[in-house]
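Q: I have 77 residues here and want to know how they pack in 3D. Can you give me a structure?
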Amino acid sequence: MTTEEKIKEVLANHVSPALQSHGGDCSFVKYDEPTATLYVAMEGACGSCPFALETLRMTVEQAVIAEVPEVKAVERV
């Protein structure tokens, strides 16, 4: 399984259900392998929420890095 496939699996199975329960979501945009940075789009309620950056760090980044250690950072686009 590629790094991108692992990331998409974590987003679909761990991150999205948690965010969807609050009316939001996030989607995979791209993974930049040279910088080990994942880029995601925050959607729904998460797209306009004033706490979106906290959600990105505490929910998305922590879950992805814990499951896919190749990822070193997660950024919002």
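Q: Anything worth noting?
A: The chain has one domain: 3-76. The mean pLDDT is 95.
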